Hints:
Layout lengths: L6 E5 L4 H13 L3 E6 L12 E4 L4 H8 L4 E4 L9 H11 L3 E3 L11 H5 L1 H15 L6 E6 L4 H7 L4 E2 L4 E5 L6 E3 L2 H13 L1 H4 L2 E4 L3 E3 L1 H12 L4 E5 L1 H13 L3 H13 L7 H4 L4 H4 L6 H9 L5
Parallel strand pairs: 1-2, 1-4, 2-3, 4-5, 5-6, 6-10, 8-12
Antiparallel strand pairs: 7-8, 9-11
Helix pairs in contact: 1-7, 2-3, 9-14, 10-11
Amino acid sequence: MAQTIKNVIVIGAAGNIGASIFRAIADSGKFNVSVLSRPDSTSTYGTGVKVVKSDYTEASLVDAFRGQDAVVSALGAAGLAEEPKLVDAAVKAGVKRFLPSEYSCNSQNAQVPALIPIFGLKVQTNKHLKAQESKGLTWTAIETGPAFDWGAQVGLVGFNINTKEATILDGGNRPFSTSNLSQVGNAVVAVLSKPEETANQFIYVDSFTATQKEILAELEKASGEKWKVTESTTEAAKTEGQALFAKGDFSGLLLLLKVITFGEGYGSDFTKDAVLGNEKLGLPKQDLPLTVAALVAGKSI
């Protein structure tokens, strides 16, 4: 009998990426969606959404996951070490599918976790998931590249739509794949809707793949203004980022994320370094001009 997914519980639904994933699942109308929440959380998710409180003990998690067909994790960096525990609870509760908190740069490229240890936690979770296949749990890891529309609000992807400033690394001619938050949600819904076709695999998606120079040209065209551009190198960003991160300065992590996004050898161009799953999943087209036009107009994508 073909596997079907109906009941879905989301972890980390209050975060930027998690909120987009939760909203996409709920808006699809295809699933009964609930949210796992810490006992002290005050986040709300709309009328009729079931919020399951858990203190993250094994018994509490197993009870929360019982009756769920899929667990979708969107935990932030601080919670990634908890994921293997969530996987174990999902197995004991009889969950069919687990989606780990990927939705970012290419964790399967060895240079990525070597530079940013947080990605090593993602690698450990993925290995643990593979080991559970014989116990009946399937999994899907979705690689999306950085979140472009959200990142462009804060300069995370090298562009800040609010200040009209850009930081171009290594000349800005290296293509990288990136996804808008809505496309991340689209991908999750598609995976849950096609469980047989997406079981036990990494799936790479994007909204578009482009160079920094191409993005800058589109931003200046749409805004009708020349942007302030700072030229630098990924080597300089790496050196500064590692020094800051070693001191506990979070801005160092943001610099290192730019390195694995724009640098050579980090597997960030999914059209070259992987196989895009957009067509397989039936994702809507979200190209560079469409994205930039929406951002400049202050509209969601």
